[in-house]
């Protein structure tokens, strides 16, 4: 009897469209000889659909043996859908609800990185919109300009901007609060080479198999923004052109953060490599699996096709 795999995609987040593409990649690549894929679509309002019909999460999940989560951003990566899966007793691949929340909350993740002794950009946390003016003044006076302004809890670089000077910084903070950001981080802008490293548990007999580094080279005069990620304008070099020492350190730090955040099964962490050291930026608990995404490229570089990876994830979920 085949294992019925529920593939969750869509969701009420700003990354709905990318999530549809990740979900589609899972559905296409899930090995048919072992698994029966069940397409579970969640619309932008949060309504669940099973095979095209509106339904409740409980009814949809009652029909599956295990779940693969193709969701990104809020609801998918912040632990909310994981709570549902845990409530209904459905095994799923990926980090549990608490670890997902911790990694998605950029402030908490940075604190864990600092506790682990890692470099991370200096920052100020704007918890309330009323504090925006005071912190904009402070960072303009104390941080080299420009600075990075980002939401505490969104993914795919949505809402991230690089701006300099009091008025632009204040405007960027205000815009994020107006858009519903749960909080804002203003970070020092670290100039260097962008890198990302994936970790997969249990692959090839290793507890924490670390994938080769990927060097991300965004278009000139920009950063690895949402548009740069999915427009195809960025170059991704795997393995990255880093020294052996830097490459090994990137892989070590990726493992450190996977454990420090209490993650499971797989993750992908982002860094900036500079002459002064390697700066940790953030960790993705549900890395994209679209054809443009970084995780499939690093897996392919070590001879792991996406169908094999998805089968591995299902086995990890069922073995817990």
Descriptive key words:
320 residues; alpha+beta; Rossmann fold; D-amino Acid Aminotransferase, Chain A, domain 1; Dna Ligase, domain 1; 3 domains; 5-stranded mixed beta sheet; 11 helices; 25% strand
Structural account:
By secondary structure, the chain is α+β, with helices and mostly antiparallel strands. It folds into three domains: 3-93, Rossmann fold; 102-119 and 191-285, 2-Layer Sandwich (D-amino Acid Aminotransferase, Chain A, domain 1); 123-188, Dna Ligase, domain 1. It contains eleven helices and 15 strands. Strands 10, 11, 12, 13, 14 and 15 form a six-stranded antiparallel sheet that branches. It has a five-stranded mixed sheet with strand order 4-3-2-1-5. Helix 6 runs antiparallel to helix 7 (166-178). It is globular. The model has no long low-confidence stretch (mean pLDDT 92).
Short structural description:
The protein is of the alpha+beta class and 320 residues long. The protein has helices spanning 16-29, 57-62, 80-87, 97-104, 106-115, 132-142, 166-178, 226-230, 244-260, 294-301, 306-319; strands at residues 3-10, 35-42, 48-50, 53-55, 66-69, 123-126, 147-151, 161-163, 184-188, 193-201, 208-210, 214-217, 235-237, 266-274, 277-284.
CATH-defined fold name of the largest domain: D-amino Acid Aminotransferase, Chain A, domain 1
Name the CATH superfamily classification of the largest domain.
ATP-grasp fold, B domain
Structural class: alpha+beta
Rg calculated over all Cα atoms: 19 Å
Give the class-level CATH name of the largest domain. Alpha Beta
Tally the helices: 11
Distance between the termini: 20 Å
SSE order, one letter for each helix or strand: EHEEEHEHHHEHEEHEEEEHEHEEHH
Q: Which range best describes the helical content: under 10%, 10-25%, 25-40%, 40-55%, 55-70% or over 70%? A: 25-40%
Shape type:
globular
Summed over residues and divided by their number, the pLDDT gives a mean of: 92
Strand content: 15-25%
Provide the domain count. 3
Examine the secondary-structure arrangement and name the CATH architecture of the largest domain: 2-Layer Sandwich
Low-confidence stretches: none
Work out the number of β strands: 15
Main β-sheet, in a few words? 6 strands, antiparallel
């Amino acid at each position: 009897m085949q294992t019925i795999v529920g593939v969750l995609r869509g969701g009420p987040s700003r990354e709905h469209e990318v999530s549809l593409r990740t979900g589609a990649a899972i559905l296409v690549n899930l090995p048919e000889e072992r698994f029966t894929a069940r397409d579970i679509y969640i619309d932008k309002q949060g309504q669940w659909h099973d095979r095209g019909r509106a339904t409740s999460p409980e009814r949809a999940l009652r029909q599956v043996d295990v779940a693969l989560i193709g969701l990104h951003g809020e609801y998918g990566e912040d632990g909310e859908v994981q709570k549902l899966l845990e409530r209904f007793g459905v095994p799923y691949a990926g980090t549990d609800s608490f670890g997902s929340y911790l990694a998605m909350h950029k402030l908490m993740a940075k604190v864990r990185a600092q506790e682990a002794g890692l470099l991370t950009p200096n920052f100020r946390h704007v918890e309330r919109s009323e504090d925006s003016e005071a912190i904009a003044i402070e960072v303009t006076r104390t941080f080299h300009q420009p600075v990075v302004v980002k939401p505490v809890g969104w993914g795919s670089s949505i809402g991230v901007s690089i701006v300099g000077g009091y008025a632009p910084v204040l405007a960027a903070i205000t815009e994020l609060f107006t858009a519903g950001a749960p909080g804002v981080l203003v970070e020092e802008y670290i100039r260097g080479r962008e890198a990302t490293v994936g970790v997969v548990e249990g692959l090839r007999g290793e507890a924490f198999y670390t994938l080769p580094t990927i060097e991300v080279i965004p278009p000139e005069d920009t950063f690895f923004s949402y548009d740069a990620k999915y427009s195809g304008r960025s170059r991704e070099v795997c393995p990255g052109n880093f020294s052996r020492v830097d490459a090994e350190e990137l892989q070590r730090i990726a493992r450190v953060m996977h454990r420090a955040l209490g993650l499971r099964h797989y993750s992908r962490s982002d860094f900036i490599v500079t002459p002064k050291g390697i700066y940790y930026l953030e960790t993705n608990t549900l890395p994209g699996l679209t054809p443009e995404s970084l995780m499939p490229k690093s897996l392919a570089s070590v001879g792991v096709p996406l169908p094999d990876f998805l089968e591995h994830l299902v086995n990890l979920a069922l073995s817990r």
